[in-house]
Amino acid sequence: MSSDVAGDQKTEEEKAAIKAEREARKAEKERLKAERKAEKAAQKAAQEEMNKIHPVTYLSQEDQDQYEPYGDYTCVMSRSQSGRVFSQVSDLGTKYVAGDTVWLRGRLQSIRVKGGSCFLVLRQDSFNTVQACFFKDKERPEESQKMIKYLKTLTEESIVDLSGTLVDADVRSCSIQSLELQIERIHAVSAASSQLPFLVEDAARSDEEVEASQDTDRPFPRLGQELRLDNRWMDLRVPANNGIMRIQSAICQLFRESLYSQGFMEIHTPKLIAGESESGAGVFTTDYFGTTACLAQSPQLYKQMAISSDMNRVFEVGPVFRAEKSHTRRHLCEFTGLDLEMAINDHYMETLEVIHKMFKHIFNGLETRFAKELSVIREQYASEPVEFTDEPCVLHWPEAMQILKDKGFDMGDELGDLTGAMELALGEAVKQKYGTDFFMLDKYPSVIRPFYTMPDPDDANYSNSYDIFIRGQEICSGAQRCHDPDMVLKILEAKGVEAGEGLKSYVESFRHGVSPHAGAGIGLERVVFLYLGLDNVRKASMFPRDPNRCTP
């Protein structure tokens, strides 16, 4: 073998060295690649962290500059009192003017983000709305971009806090029309789901508007009663429906005002009782420590025992329960009773005069002191104010019978109760004859009245009882009560009602002396329903109970 050939051959050590060098270069290449990748990842993470919108725990207005001006609040858990003063939307333009900085909390009614701008509408207390806006700031592009990014995440119906400066504007679509808010801070207090059962905007349209749209290219959705009631909290955000609840509250307030001014006191009677409080009406029963009790159908017996207790003028606002399978637009299984009872000197007309004065106070008070609420309601549910006479308009049973016979009704022996059609026809006739939507009908036949009703002194077939009507539908039932214990027992026997434990104490209270007295029970939801001309009493109940509904 020549020496040249031997020189071309590498030793194993040399080969190993070459391989090691090659692997070292490859490893270095991989290391540099990994470093570049890690550097890019770090840069990306830093960029993402910089762009990330963090939750805000707002503890103090003094430390506000430490908090980002956007982002959801962490859960408000009473960590501190921040020192912020929140303004009412209704005060904008009066208490607060252009140039003022305000904090507002409300519900996000609508939001529109496009490019570098955003317009939203904040709704407060269902009635009051104001426009707020944000525009990208060229001097602070990164922060503006994050604000726009956050605004895009907000969902309608969320509760949000806004802070900003009021500026002059012309906004026709909001209740505040001369100002808008330039957003400086915005935080979601409670985010609403992006999928809502329905839009408040759709629920706020009148039936006429919805029906008129059905033949157009963009028909509005029909929202059924059951859908609304299943999601009643959403339905009550609708300005008109929210207003109905405010009118319900107002009627209670005015009821109390009038009766207090007429010498009444408020009482609170049991709702768990040992026996039926009225004859002929269904009751809900429950176990009461091994015995059967029922939910009160009215405070009737206890109102009368209050008179025996020398509380000579009493009233109550409380729940009433009726286990009646009435599937009508004007019946509920639970409603709020406005009840009153008073001692009388000579005649139950004294009570009718008190009731008439009370209803006048309610009707006048609603139209003057709650005109805003009525205006909002009537935009969706058309109605006119109830017309009424200055003095009580009282029809006696014989006159009502003659009116109905003249209208073609077969009244038989004239001792039967009125049907809904008869009541409406009577209301129409009274409106034509006396010019009133509000009237009283007395001297009902005894056979259709409860056992505690005082019979007519001249004809036992009739009674000293009365119903009160609005727009031809009954809202109130009342009577002079039978305060003679022996007479009460005879009536109970005649009606086939057993004087059980629940009635024994009631009758006994009369044996110890009781003033002659009369009273009435009024259905609050029925008054609201008829005063506002609604098509269903369920609209007048916050969470209605009927034979098919016990939730929500």
Features:
about 550 residues; alpha+beta; 8-stranded mixed beta sheet; 17 strands; 5-stranded mixed beta barrel; 16 helices
Short overview:
The strands form three sheets. An eight-stranded mixed β-sheet has the order 7-11-12-17-16-15-14-13, with helices on both faces. A five-stranded mixed barrel has the order 2-3-4-6-5. It has a three-stranded antiparallel β-sheet with strand order 8-10-9, with no helix packed on it.
Structure description:
- The chain has 552 residues and is α+β, with helices and mostly antiparallel strands.
- It is built from 16 helices and 17 strands.
Poorly predicted runs of 5 or more residues: none
User: What overall geometry do the principal axes of the alpha carbons give?
Assistant: elongated
Which radius of gyration do the C-alpha atoms yield? 36 Å
Largest sheet: 8 strands, mixed
Give the beta-strand count: 17
* % residues in beta strands: 15-25%
Kindly report the average pLDDT value: 94
Q: Strand sequence of the main sheet, in spatial order?
A: 7-11-12-17-16-15-14-13
Count the DSSP helices. 16
Q: What is the percent of helical residues?
A: 25-40%
Separation of the first and last Cα atoms:
105 Å
The helix-and-strand class reads: alpha+beta
Tell me the layout of helices and strands.
Blueprint lengths: L2 H6 L3 H40 L34 E2 L13 E14 L2 E8 L3 E8 L5 H13 L5 E10 L10 E12 L9 H4 L3 H6 L12 H6 L1 H4 L3 H23 L3 E2 L5 E2 L11 E4 L2 E5 L4 H9 L4 E9 L12 E10 L5 H21 L1 H10 L13 E3 H10 L13 H15 L3 E5 L22 E6 L2 E8 L4 H10 L6 H11 L5 E7 H8 L21
Parallel strand pairs: 1-2, 4-6, 7-11, 13-14
Antiparallel strand pairs: 2-3, 2-5, 3-4, 5-6, 8-10, 9-10, 11-12, 12-17, 14-15, 15-16, 16-17
